[in-house]
């Protein structure tokens, strides 16, 4: 067995605390401080996953968030990188995409067929004009090729979203981040330091240097002591948005399950997110045991893991030498394949000292070993085959420019560093350290401090801050790299993107087939997709594409970086906004009464409305018809508290309303209500409602329930932005007041019983009459209005008085047989009467479309008058309001049905549609309102209503929308 | 993003309602031809860069105000009452 062994001393683990967990059902062990990755490596497991497409054996490539291979389902959460997952007692981790296990995976047969699974395979095989088979094959393909499987059960965890504010947000806690946080913290500013890892320190944690560890500890203890500094670990800064706002997701502490989201608004941001090492592209570079050089060093210094006896390091830059030297010092036999002609002399000298053999101008030709690396075949100037346990590779470093690019600032390529650097920053943002291409440790500390100072200056802080002590190490040596990107094609097992199984040959194929832009390359090959979003693969791939096209890397550019930086728990985005907390619920002041007296509620927008009452029936169909009959023959009481209610006051209130409504309001007498319609500037109907004049200077406006907020905002807009000269004030009473509709031929008797001292006779409260009375010490507004077409009143009063008044009316009018009726009956009664409501007022129709054209004043100006008469809005074939009667007794009429002329083919959008349907208790048939091309010009015609979802067609007749009492005798009774 | 309400100070954009281009000149009430209203209502620039616009602090003091904003960078270029 090759792989790793655990050293007896060293590392950042606590050997006194053994932790037991399960991996694929069997018991496994690790120490406190281990990740799932380090614990599995320590237990001798190198092969831990199967690849996405070919089911090739895979091991950990990295030791950090960039991990493409080692993904696990931990508890219910799929696709957790083992490199970020801290083990804890009882943790249950399962491997993914392999059956029955990664060691023995039956799906590996896909690997044999890999020559046909190349770039574009699915497109070429299953999609296209003559290939309809994608729909059939997709489930099978998804099953064979995939990542983890999301749990189908509801997330029981209570996640939280919080909001944070700070003066300085530092992203990353490496040498640059710590220095920046110290500088800003010492100045007394509110600082948040966000670190993705569970420990602070970034690259310092993997450095294996006592001097650096001392510096790190000093810095952290100083920061911990500062009350103005918050230190966040396990905190991924997922996205950067306008106004220096970031979204931070915090992973739970080990053993906890609730991920949380914090939205932080920072006055300044210091980006110190470091860099990610790139792999090299060579044949079989995906074999378990082939890892990033920095990861090997990290496992050594954080988890005391070393390759069992022999390691090969292959590199195109100086940074991998640190890994080679540290391994050699830990007793591992190390060989270096150096892709460049010669590294600098100090490295050669140190290598010679440690007995490390260096093969210059040499790379890796192939890797031997199937489920696990056994030998490395070097190629180039030297062709040697070397036995080894681990192959550590380094293709150079890519600064983590994701976050700095989220605002649309594209990164720029730096030729000397062979890396993309941030292309700039929005105001108040600064960068430091490896993110800026500064790979030296001391230089990073200085840059972090300078970025901290820049933030202080930006914030206008004049405070003198003590300089940050430099760590006690010798001067940085310059970072040197000679870019070797690997060559696209013909090698079929030289992987560029490990997670998506994209090879150098796939990149060549994409180029050959014309997918030249990096965005096309991404979509054609799936390169850079998946949970790791190409953190280790993108730069190599686009450099290869640049090479194929003969362009510079900068000209080729990167794909667009988008949030989130790491996969995030969806539940954490929702926080507590789940279930009935998903959106606000609005309740009428009568809600509790309804609930206590046998009602079925229905959601209407945000409102919970009383739909129908138990007294009338068990089903809505049964109940609303009985409730309608009650109103047509006796008296009923309905909750109309949801109507928009606006108090309009001021000397110019009448003039204001006269401008708003198409009909006149200037001369409305005190004590009278009027039905009004208002238009938008474009001449399309905005809303309708009744408005009453309470005094010379006070009006009481009602709006539809749905448009209450819109209308209020519109009135404020006109008064504040355009007509400041009008002395008018508006206030919403929608929540402050409630109301009820008392309807039916016996409603006057009921009203008189309720308010025996008020004159509610026909002359005392005539049709459209309004009067305020005092009852029980409270103002009660009586309005003789009708939505149902019957003799009816609305009674409005302050919200906290509504239940008492409602109960009073029901009690005193009980001898008349009064009962409550709900929204379904309310809406059905108005259909019979032909009143338009929200379903007809769809923001596309004009006054004429709704048959309301005659209401508009001829002389006075009103909003929307000019554009109302546009040619197209006057066209004779516009869809306009009609009444409809079902001609086929026994059949059902459905809302939303599409209307066709009798001779039409039943196809397409037809000539209109049904907006509202009800059973008419008066006519004993189904009736409806609808919009139909040409409208009532077709009165009397027989047409067809089609409901394709149920494959139904019924015959209808076009009639007047006023089904009952056209003369209004009932209203005026 | 946060917007400066002239009465309440900086508040999150989710508290506001957008009210369109504030540089457009609304014809006086009852005046203006159909063409003028058409141009006012339907014809306006959608600039990348500086833009004067109406906003209402709808979940706050309900005041409408005008604001200069860079539409490309979402930077507030200074508000006015």
How large is the count of helical segments of chain A?
A: 24
Rg of chain A, Å, rounded: 37 Å
**Overall 3D form of chain B:** globular
CATH superfamily of chain B: Folate-binding superfamily
Distance separating the two termini of chain B:
20 Å
How many domains in all of chain B?
Answer: 1
The top-level CATH class of chain B is Alpha Beta
Oligomer: heterodimer
- The portion of residues assigned to helices of chain A is 10-25%
Strand content of chain B: 35-45%
The secondary-structure class of chain B comes to: mainly beta
Q: Trace the largest sheet of chain B across and list its strands.
A: 3-4-5-6
Kindly describe this structure:
The complex is a heterodimer of chains A (973) and B (81). With 973 residues, chain A is of the alpha+beta class. In chain A, strands 9, 10, 11, 12, 13, 14 and 28 form a seven-stranded mixed sheet that branches. A six-stranded mixed sheet of chain A has the order 41-42-43-40-34-44, with helices on both faces. In chain A, β9 (160-171), α5 and β10 form a beta-alpha-beta unit. Chain A starts with a strand and ends in a 14-residue tail after the last strand. In chain A, 52% of the residues are buried. With 81 residues, chain B is mainly beta. Chain B has one domain (2-80): Folate-binding fold, CATH 3.30.2270.10. Chain B has a four-stranded antiparallel sheet with strand order 3-4-5-6, with no helix packed on it. In chain B, strands 1-2 form a two-stranded antiparallel sheet. In chain B, a hairpin with a 3-residue loop joins β1 and β2 (9-12). The model of chain B has no long low-confidence stretch (mean pLDDT 92). Chains A and B meet through α20 of A and α1 of B.
């Amino acid at each position: 067995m090759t792989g790793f062994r655990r050293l007896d001393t060293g590392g950042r683990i606590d050997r006194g605390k053994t932790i037991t967990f399960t991996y694929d059902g069997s018991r496994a062990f690790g120490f406190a401080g281990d990740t799932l990755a380090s614990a599995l490596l320590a237990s001798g497991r190198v092969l831990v996953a199967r690849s996405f497409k070919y089911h090739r054996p895979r091991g950990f490539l990295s030791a950090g968030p960039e991990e493409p291979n080692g993904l696990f389902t931990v508890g219910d959460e799929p696709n957790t990188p083992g490199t970020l997952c801290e083990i804890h007692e009882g943790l249950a981790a399962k491997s993914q995409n392999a059956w029955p296990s990664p060691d023995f995976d039956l799906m590996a047969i896909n690997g044999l067929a890999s020559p046909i699974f190349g770039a574009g395979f699915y497109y070429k095989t299953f999609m296209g004009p003559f290939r309809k088979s994608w729909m059939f094959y997709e489930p099978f393909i998804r099953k064979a090729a995939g990542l983890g499987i999301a749990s189908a059960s509801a997330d029981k965890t209570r996640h939280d979203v919080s909001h944070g504010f700070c003066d300085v947000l530092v992203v990353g806690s490496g040498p640059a981040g710590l220095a920046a946080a110290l500088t800003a913290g010492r100045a007394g500013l509110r600082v948040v330091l966000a670190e993705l890892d569970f420990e602070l320190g970034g690259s310092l944690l993997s450095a294996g240097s006592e001097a650096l560890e001392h510096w790190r500890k000093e810095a952290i203890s100083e920061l911990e002591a500062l009350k103005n500094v918050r230190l966040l670990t396990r905190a991924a800064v997922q996205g950067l948005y306008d106004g220096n706002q970031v979204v931070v997701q915090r992973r739970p502490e080990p053993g906890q399950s609730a991920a949380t989201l914090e939205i932080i608004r920072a006055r300044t941001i210091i980006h110190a997110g470091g860099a990610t090492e790139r792999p090299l592209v060579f044949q079989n570079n995906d074999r378990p045991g082939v890892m990033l050089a920095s990861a090997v060093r990290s496992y050594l210094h954080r988890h005391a893991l070393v390759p069992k006896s022999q390691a090969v390091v292959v590199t195109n830059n100086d940074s991998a030498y640190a890994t080679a030297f540290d391994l050699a010092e830990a007793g591992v036999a190390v060989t270096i394949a150096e892709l460049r002609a010669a590294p600098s002399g100090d490295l050669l000298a140190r290598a010679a000292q440690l007995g490390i053999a260096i093969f210059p101008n040499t790379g890796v030709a192939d890797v031997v070993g199937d489920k696990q690396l056994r030998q490395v075949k070097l190629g180039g100037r030297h062709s040697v085959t070397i036995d080894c346990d681990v192959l550590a590779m380094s293709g150079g470093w890519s600064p983590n420019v994701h976050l700095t690019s989220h605002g649309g600032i594209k990164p720029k390529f730096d030729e000397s560093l062979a890396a993309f650097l941030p292309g700039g920053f929005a105001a108040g943002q600064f960068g430091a350290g490896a993110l800026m291409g500064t790979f030296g440790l001391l230089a990073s500390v200085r840059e972090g401090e300078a970025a901290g100072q820049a933030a202080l200056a930006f914030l206008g802080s004049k405070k003198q801050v003590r300089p940050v002590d430099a760590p006690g190490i010798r001067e940085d040596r310059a970072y040197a790299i000679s870019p070797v990107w690997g060559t696209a094609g013909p090698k079929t097992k030289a992987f560029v993107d490990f997670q998506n199984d994209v090879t150098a040959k796939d990149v060549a194929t994409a180029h050959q087939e014309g997918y030249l832009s990096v965005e096309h390359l991404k979509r054609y090959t799936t390169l850079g997709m998946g949970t790791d979003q190409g953190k280790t693969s993108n730069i190599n791939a686009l450099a290869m594409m640049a090479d194929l096209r003969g362009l510079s890397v900068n000209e080729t550019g990167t794909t667009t970086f988008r949030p989130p930086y790491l996969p995030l728990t969806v539940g954490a985005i929702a926080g507590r906004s789940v279930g009935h907390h998903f959106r606000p619920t609005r309740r009428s002041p009568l809600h509790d009464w309804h609930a206590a007296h046998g009602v079925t509620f229905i959601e209407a927008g945000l409102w919970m409305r009383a739909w129908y009452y138990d007294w009338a029936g068990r089903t809505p169909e049964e109940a609303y018809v009985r409730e309608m009959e009650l109103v047509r023959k006796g008296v009923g009481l309905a909750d109309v508290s949801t109507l928009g209610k606006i108090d309009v006051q001021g000397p110019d209130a009448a003039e204001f309303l006269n401008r708003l409504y198409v009909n006149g309001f200037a001369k409305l007498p005190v004590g009278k209500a009027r039905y009004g319609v208002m238009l938008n500037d474009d001449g399309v109907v905005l809303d309708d409602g009744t408005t009453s004049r309470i005094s010379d200077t006070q009006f009481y406006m009602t709006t539809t329930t749905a448009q209450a907020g819109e209308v209020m905002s519109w009135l404020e807009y006109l008064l504040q932005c355009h007509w400041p000269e009008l002395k008018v004030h508006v206030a919403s009473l929608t929540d402050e007041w409630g109301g009820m509709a008392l309807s039916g031929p016996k409603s006057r008797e009921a009203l008189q019983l309720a308010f025996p001292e008020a004159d509610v006779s026909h002359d005392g409260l005539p049709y459209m009459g309004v009067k305020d009375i005092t009852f029980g010490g409270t103002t009660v507004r009586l309005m003789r209005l009708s939505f149902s077409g019957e003799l009816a009143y609305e009674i409005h009063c302050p919200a906290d008085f509504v239940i008492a008044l409602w109960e009073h009316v029901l009690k005193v009018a009980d001898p008349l047989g009064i009962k409550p009726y709900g929204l379904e009956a309310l809406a059905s009664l108005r259909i019979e009467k032909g009143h338009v409501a929200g379903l007809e007022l769809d923001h596309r129709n004009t006054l004429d479309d709704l048959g309301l054209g005659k209401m508009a004043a001829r002389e006075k100006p009103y909003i929307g008058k000019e554009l109302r008469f546009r040619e197209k809005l006057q066209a004779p074939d516009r869809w306009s309001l009609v009444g409809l009667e079902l001609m086929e007794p026994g059949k059902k009429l459905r809302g939303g049905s599409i209307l066709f002329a009798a001779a039409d083919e039943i196809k397409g959008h037809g000539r209109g549609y049904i907006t509202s349907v009800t059973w008419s208790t008066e006519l004993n048939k189904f009736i409806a309102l609808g919009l139909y091309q040409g409208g009532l010009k077709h009165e009397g015609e027989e047409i067809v209503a089609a409901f394709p979802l149920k494959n139904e067609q019924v015959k209808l007749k076009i009639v007047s929308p006023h089904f009952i009492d056209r003369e209004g005798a009932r209203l005026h009774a | 993003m946060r917007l400066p309400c002239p009465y309440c100070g900086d508040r999150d954009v989710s508290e506001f309602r957008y009210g369109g281009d504030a540089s457009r000149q609304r014809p006086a009430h009852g005046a203006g031809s159909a063409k003028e209203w058409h141009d006012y209502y339907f014809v306006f620039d959608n600039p990348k860069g500086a833009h004067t616009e109406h906003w209402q602090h709808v979940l706050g003091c309900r005041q409408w105000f005008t604001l200069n904003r860079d539409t490309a960078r979402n930077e507030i270029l200074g508000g006015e009452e």
